[in-house]
Design brief:
Chains: A mainly alpha (249), B mainly alpha (230), C alpha/beta (242)
CATH architecture of chain B: Orthogonal Bundle
CATH topology of chain B: MetI-like fold
Helix content of chain B: over 70%
Structural class of chain B: mainly alpha
Order of helices and strands of chain B: HHHHHHHH
Strand order of the largest sheet of chain C: 6-7-8-3-9-10
Distance between the termini of chain B: 58 Å
Oligomer: heterotrimer
Chain lengths: 249, 230, 242
């Protein structure tokens, strides 16, 4: 195999003259995690809201929620990012559009928004499935006590629903972190982008990508353990939390 | 607001978009799905075999593919496949493979991990009594799997398999990072050449939406019709 | 025909079968009964190797079941088994359920297999349902098809694991009638069941099991008339109250 291995490449200085390649990879990891976390918060908030309205008694709210989910599920994430990054500024009035284009770290904010909306549709699916998997009697019991619909959701339905969907929710969280890599196409210098840059400058292809792979694996392990700890802490005694069957990517 | 936009550019570039771009996308989707289902089923059988030397590598492979972004895998295989080709054929230098072959290998191997988990769930959902009945009739393991378990598992998981195919179809857009001309790549090239980003990207989004949405409606109808009555 | 000799089986630390011995001669019908958890289902599943066992030996027509060198699929093809939950293959028609193993395991031709299938379906009274799917049949009908499926392999012996336990009361008789007819034709049968009426009518011997042991093994009349063990007496009094 005519490939020259050089694992010392990580300690060489990168073209920016200041950081070693290893440091640039770590900087990229920082952006990966920041994007993933911020997008996840957005996704959780929006997704929960949409998931709830899809189970509401009002038919038009359900349709609205369904339309939302269909929209964000049927367009590839990459295309959605392009829409937010390239198309949105052009559709806004010129002052707003120009401001958006001048924004420093525009690719970060765009990535967070795009990834947030994309993931929120998937979270909405899970939340809906979780609520529906609860016995119908739960909602009736809550209302019979005199709670309003919003109170029923807040105090009875959602607390159990979230515990039930914690495992697939963990999957979605990990997916969000991985999907941040797509933002390299709009200029976000996250981990995969940094690995690619390192490969382009040094030609040490396999060292660069191995490092990135190892870092993603470690992120995976840490998050999985943390979520399992969370599952244990929030478990309801005597209840076998059966996660509803939803296909996760 | 829309007066500055020239939607004619879409009409002009339709042949390029669909003959060059969409055929690449659809061919890649079809072939990668076929390969990934076959390989994924094999992985599922390995994981369920109960033999550690067979089950552990399969599990390791699946967990690796599910931990890493597809974008990174696309880069990995783009560089790795020529070396593998060199190793297999014993050539003196890495073999040049085209963009299509590299993408096909990437998507088949990557998505196989997800199809593996789907088939694993499907196989495990078949009641143990079915296996006992098949064995009681004297069928061997391959016969039991081939005639009794896998046919039922496939029927049960068909909607999920098709949904995963739709996801694969959308994922193919990521070949953009290698500047390959799939449907999105074609739209992007026209957009940049003619300076018509808004029109082209909106059109691309609409086309992806139409195809994915239609496919998912089909899957929903199918779900109601293929359920095996027990 | 079937010899069970000092068979013991552990499931992890728990001993499921304790030194069980009995036999079934050619043409004999032996009923195995006992309270739930007694190990009777496990014992019968050891006979065709569906369950492994750690101690003792089981031979069927001279072939040792526990021997590593034994070709189990080949042996199983010669022993028929009927399950509590029928276990018909839901994705295949009734005919195909009967034909599949004939073709793939015995290597018979398709025409011959289908003829045999129709013969057997007629014998169990279900010739009209040949093209239906299991899901379209009642429990009693499914179990009769299951019996036909096992018979299609021309077995030397038949094992029945609680064949009527999952049936609604009004369907039990149609299945028992088939089994009585089978016994009258001279089939060697080992039947795990609670149906004492069937036992009295057809069985030559009754084996009573409790907590993994064979407690009593006596000719039918003796078992029902003068059970030797206290446990058998208690069991009989509970069962026969109905």
């Amino acid at each position: 195999m005519n490939y020259n291995w050089n694992w010392g490449i990580f300690f060489q200085t990168s073209p920016d003259g200041v950081h070693t390649y290893l440091t640039t990879l770590l900087m990229g990891t920082g952006w990966t995690l920041a994007t993933g976390l911020a997008a996840w918060c957005l996704a959780l908030a929006l997704g929960s809201l949409v998931g709830v309205i899809r189970t509401a008694p009002s038919a038009w709210l359900v349709h609205l929620g369904n339309a939302y989910v269909e929209l964000f599920r049927n367009i590839p994430l990459l295309v959605q990012m392009f829409l937010w990054y390239f198309v949105l500024p052009e559709l806004l009035p010129s002052a707003a559009g120009d401001w958006l284009k001048q924004l420093p770290d525009a690719s970060f904010y765009t990535a967070v928004v795009a990834l947030g909306f994309y993931t929120s549709a998937r979270v909405a699916e899970l939340v809906r499935a979780g609520i529906l998997s609860l016995a119908r009697g739960q909602r009736m019991a809550a209302l019979a006590l005199g709670l309003t619909q919003p109170q029923a959701y807040a105090y009875v339905l959602l607390p159990m629903a979230f515990r039930i969907i914690l495992p697939p929710l963990t999957s979605e969280f990990l997916n969000t972190i991985k999907n941040s890599a797509v933002a390299l196409t709009i200029g976000l210098m996250e981990l995969t982008a940094r690995a690619r840059a390192m490969q382009e400058f040094t030609f040490q292809v396999f060292e660069a990508f191995t490092a990135a792979t190892v870092i993603y694996l470690m992120i995976n392990i840490v998050v999985t353990f943390a979520m399992r700890a969370l599952e244990r802490r929030t478990a309801v005694p005597g209840f076998i939390g059966a996660a509803p069957q939803v296909a996760t990517h | 607001m829309f007066s500055n936009f020239d939607f004619d550019v879409i009409v002009r570039s339709l042949p390029y978009l669909f003959y060059d771009g969409m055929t690449f996308t659809l061919t890649l989707t079809a072939l990668a799905t076929a390969g990934a289902i076959v390989f994924g089923t094999l992985l599922a059988l390995m994981r369920l075999s109960g033999l550690p030397p067979v089950a552990l590598p399969a599990a390791g492979y699946v967990n690796l593919m599910r931990s890493v972004p597809l974008v990174l895998m696309i880069f990995w295989f783009y560089f790795l496949v020529p070396y593998i080709g060199q190793w297999i054929t014993g050539a003196s230098r890495p073999i040049q493979v085209g963009a299509f072959v590299s993408s096909l290998v990437t998507f088949t191997l990557f998505e196989a991990a997800f199809f593996c988990e789907i088939m694993r769930a499907g196989i495990q959902s078949i009641p143990r009594g079915q296996v006992a009945a098949a064995q009681a009739l004297g069928m061997t393991y391959p016969q039991t799997m081939g005639y009794i378990v896998l046919p039922q598992a496939f029927r049960n998981m068909l909607p999920v398999l098709l949904t995963q195919t739709i996801i694969l179809f959308q994922d193919t857009s990521l070949v953009y990072v290698l500047s390959i001309t799939d449907f999105l790549g074609a739209a992007s090239k026209v957009a940049q050449r003619d300076g018509r980003l808004v029109e082209m990207y909106l059109f691309a989004a609409a086309v992806y939406f139409a195809i994915s949405f239609a496919a998912s409606l089909f899957v929903r109808r199918l779900q109601r019709r293929v359920a095996i009555v027990r | 025909m079937i010899t069970i000799s000092h068979v013991s089986k552990w499931y992890r630390d728990f001993q499921v079968l304790k030194d069980c011995s009995t036999d079934v001669e050619k043409g004999e019908v032996v009923v195995v009964c006992g309270p739930s958890g007694s190990g009777k289902s496990t014992l019968i599943k050891c006979v065709n190797g569906l369950e492994p066992f750690q101690g003792g030996t089981i031979t069927v027509a001279g072939i040792s079941v526990g021997d590593r060198k034994t070709d189990l699929p080949k042996l199983r093809a010669r022993i028929g088994m009927v399950f509590q939950h029928f276990e018909l293959f839901p994705h295949l028609t009734v005919t195909r359920n009967l034909v599949l193993a004939q073709v793939k395991v015995l290597g018979r031709g398709k025409m011959e297999s289908e003829q045999r299938a129709m013969q057997l379906l007629a014998r169990v009274g279900l010739a009209d349902h040949a093209r239906k799917y299991p899901g379209e049949l009642s429990g009693g009908q499914q179990q009769r098809v299951a019996i036909a499926r096992a018979l299609a392999m021309d077995p030397i012996a038949m094992l029945f694991d609680e064949p009527t336990s999952a049936l609604d009361p009004e369907m039990i008789n149609e299945v028992l009638d088939v089994m009585v007819a089978l016994a009258a034709d001279g089939m060697t049968m080992m039947v795990v069941t609670h149906e004492m009426g069937f036992a009295r009518k057809v069985a030559r011997r009754v084996v009573f099991m409790d907590h993994g042991e064979v407690v009593e093994d006596a000719p039918t009349a003796e078992f029902f008339g003068q059970p030797r063990s206290e446990r058998a007496r208690v069991f009989l009094s509970k069962i026969l109250q109905h």
